[in-house]
Design goal:
By secondary structure, the protein is an alpha/beta fold. It contains 14 helices and 12 strands. The relative contact order is 0.13. Belongs to the Glu/Leu/Phe/Val dehydrogenases family.
Length: about 400
């Protein structure tokens, strides 16, 4: 998917073959064995990955995921998307991504700590505040980042908070970081409603994925007066045409760790959820959820891609023929997380921290600029929103590589 998108935009931008290869391929791709002493006395060897896509604009930046399906190809694609995302929002970063093939839900907290510390040690020569700065992703969290920071700092002999972002606030994390992706989604949905002249109080929203991003996005969108009529997680979904009470739902999820069984809604599958008639559809779960099989049947006015790569290229072609759907592409829609990660890194480097209002104000200004640039590019060059966003990001990376030249 990532390569197909790149090739299409590279053709549009008329990037030459020599430059195209440099912009496309990752700078570094690292695979490591991660042996871990398990609680039952056995030793299990996991496989870890870190891909750094390019270093032309600064250090690389990207998440670290723990999931059974983590593989080198997936990590490389996510690193590429992160490059375009950082360039689109004007951050001085290249893209990176990493992870370990494991099932964190089946591991104890002690096993996860040993896994994280050993993985960090294996890649320690390739990360650092001026090299590559990991962050939380699927299956990882603030605690994971604290372990990574401590391992790196112990190796260095002094505290290095800037080596990771998404840390606990009292270890150098930023206020607002945990909520930043979801709040960014909400802000951009609001701007999209203004752009296509939708009255928020008369709108409905459906959200696939009720984790950290989806739940925060739901709350942010609901503040406009929009009714959240359906949500889902990995175990299933729920639907109430009159709107869900998010406070009651949050309490239910806190107690049961799933939206399934919420008494004030009827059950629905994830597949059915994507086809519910609504004004705003927010895929905030996994990749490749909107495909050639369901793209013609989704019924929304705004498609806000809070997940990475939720729409396949085949589905994109179908949605491009449906002008009633306004797409907020993933590299713009979910950029709030990396923007506030950038703020956290800056605060760590200068040892001077901002309050949450300042963080959110700066975030919304950056997203506003990126939204306007994408809308104007799409309108002026008659492109889809995705192609417009990608073309801005890819061109900035290609220009940087051209200006820096090629070291012999």
């Amino acid at each position: 998917m990532a390569c197909a998108q790149f090739d299409e935009v590279a053709d549009l931008l008329e990037i030459g073959q020599r430059e195209r290869e440099r912009v496309k391929y990752p700078k570094r791709a690292i695979t490591v064995a991660v042996p871990v002493n398990m609680d039952d006395g056995s030793t299990q060897v996991f496989t870890g990955f870190r891909v750094q896509h390019h270093l032309s604009l600064g250090p690389t930046k990207g998440g670290m995921r723990y999931h059974p399906d983590v593989a080198l190809g997936e990590v490389a694609a996510l690193a590429m998307w992160m490059s375009w995302k950082c360039a689109l929002t004007g951050l001085p970063y290249g893209g990176a991504k990493g992870g370990v093939t494991c099932d964190p839900g089946k591991m104890s907290i002690q096993e996860l700590e040993r896994l994280t510390r050993r993985f960090t040690q294996e890649i320690i020569g390739f990360i650092g505040p001026q090299i590559d700065i990991p962050a939380p992703d699927m299956g990882t969290n603030e605690q994971t980042m604290a372990w990574m920071m401590d391992t790196y700092s112990t190796h260095s002999g002094y505290s290095v908070p800037g080596v990771v972002t998404g840390k606990p606030v009292n270890l150098g994390g930023s206020l607002g970081r945990r909520e930043s992706t979801g709040r960014g989604v909400g802000f951009l949905v609001g701007r999209a409603m203004e752009h296509i002249k939708l009255a928020p109080e008369n709108t409905t929203a459906v959200i696939q994925g009720f984790g950290n991003v989806g739940s925060v996005a739901a709350g942010s969108i609901a503040r406009f007066g929009t009714k959240i009529i359906a949500v889902s997680d990995a175990f299933g979904g729920i639907y109430n045409a009159k709107g869900l009470d998010l406070n009651l739902l949050d309490a239910h999820v806190t107690k049961n760790r799933t939206v399934v069984g919420f008494p004030e809604a009827e059950p629905i599958t994830n597949e059915e959820l994507l086809l519910i008639p609504c004004d705003i559809l927010v895929p905030a779960a996994l990749e490749r959820q909107i495909t050639k099989d369901n793209a013609a049947r989704i019924q929304c006015r705004i498609l806000a891609e809070a997940a990475n790569g939720p729409t396949t290229p085949e589905a994109d072609a179908i949605i491009a023929q449906r002008p009633e759907i306004f797409v907020i592409p993933d590299i713009l829609c979910n950029a709030g997380g990396v923007v506030v990660s950038y703020f956290e890194w800056v605060q760590d480097l200068q040892s001077f921290f901002w309050d949450e209002a300042e963080v959110m104000g700066k975030l919304y200004r950056i997203l506003e600029t990126a939204f306007k640039q994408t809308v104007h590019t799409a309108r002026d060059k008659k492109l889809t929103m995705r192609t417009a966003a990608l073309s801005i990001g890819i061109k900035r990376v290609a220009d940087a590589k051209k200006q820096r030249g090629l070291f012999p």
